[in-house]
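pasting for ref
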Amino acid sequence: TGAVLGIRPSDPELSITLEAAGAGSGLSLNLAEIARLQEGFKRIEIGSMGGAHRIAVTTDISFRDPLVLMTPQPGGEVTVDRSALRAPTMTIIGSGHTTYLDNSSLTATEGAMDIFDSVVVQGTSSITSPTYIDIQRAPAVSGSGSINANPAGTAPDILNLTAGGLIRVEGPVGNVDPLDKLVIVNATDVTFEQSI
């Protein structure tokens, strides 16, 4: 039910920023603009499968419809910077290099959390879903689907995972820079496909 809303720049390498106010460089969406999106879309797609965007989330944002962030081409990355990003379901389709969480949270409030990318954590961050969390390889990229710490950070790097059902991590954990702590807050089943 509902239409798919696609938000993408014509330039596949242009940056995309979700921010509190003002107009950042590239394609910028602020809270007032996001609030005008009426509930009822099948999903909201930001970016594109042909994109190598740098998607940055710099403020707390709640979407009322399923959210898909897409930047799978080489050079594409997603950064959530000291912010909470929430949507009924959430899918991140990255390049494999990388989804960065800096003292931030990703929350699917009603359904699945699918991350097709590697995840790098700085500070204390969390990923939450009432159903499942699946961190897996990016499209056509081998070696992603991993979880690591950001070596540039000085505070302990901690990732909290909370799911009502399965948690699965397809890639290795800590193969580049180990986390100080990986906490499974809740899950019915946890699968690590590679080393941890």
